[in-house]
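Incident log, structure service

09:12 report received: a user says their structure output differs between two submissions of the same chain.
09:20 pulled the input from the user's history:
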Amino acid sequence: MSVILATAGQDDKIRFWEAPSGVCSRILRYADSQVNCLEITPDKQYLAAGGNPHIRLFEINNASNQSILALEGHTGNVTCLGFQRNGRYLYSSSEDGTVKLWDLRSPTYSRSFDSKGPVNSVALHPNQSHIISGDQNGSMKLWDLGSSKCIIDIVPECSSNSISTSSLGRVAIQSVDVSNDTLIAANNHAEVFCYDAMKASLHTPSPSTPDDNDTTGTTTTASQQTLQPKAKFRAHSYGSYLLHAKISPDGRSLVTTSSDQTARLFDTTTWTIQQTLAQHSKWVWDAVFSADSSYLVTASSDRTARLWNLRSGAPVRQYTDHNYAVTCVALNDSST
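09:34 re-ran on a clean worker, output below:
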């Protein structure tokens, strides 16, 4: 199969689609819970699905609908997952407050990092040696896989009119992502914070206090290594919730999805809006780019997923067979 497209959500089913025709080609049952996240291995052989609290691995080209591996170790909703470049290792985040690494030759995790709060999102740096996490306590952390330590812990400074969503008086980081040169953290009040992923410095303000001259919105702890901010902007209007943010494979665009029923595309050079995709009728939960960054698939509470041509900004296909909200989508159309 040259293109693997899968969607899932609250109807305990994972659906595979023929991307060009919109025909559902296969249905897998995920009986344990709703499905929160999906990811396809780089070689297109396996699909990982995260629920509550399990992660299950399915063989894509196997006619059996049974999972071939169940990863046990999380104790809460699995919120995000992904694969290392060679597909042998999986990383995941959970509302249980941990980020975990899994060797797929074993059903138990090989390493676990304590984030001190429920984790909403996780991403692997292209250098394959650092993991970025965003949590409900409003913190973005960078974990060094060599030392198994948190080497950067940043609390982006939110707008004064943003209402805190944690016991610490902070706004939850809803989504994180990283490319070769840019790291982004987006909170659930639709503020996006952009950092230079290549440059780090030693920052020594008073604990939990932003620099007097800092206008980029970053708070760190004393003598903590930090990232250099590049930009800060609001992706969706006040009152909207941001649900997901993803950098395109070519690094030129950022997509955000929201409760305002839209997905928005931003230029990662200027951080100005390029397009608003507004055909869904309910919350847009997830989005994934094609390998060449020219197409996007979105997943929505309106029980559909849509394929968009980003050159024209028009939807070109709709996938409509789910009984409830579609909350996650995975796509692998790479040629390698």
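09:41 both user submissions now match this output. Likely a transient worker issue. Closing.
09:42 reviewer note: The longest strand covers residues 191-203. DSSP finds no helices and 29 strands in the chain.
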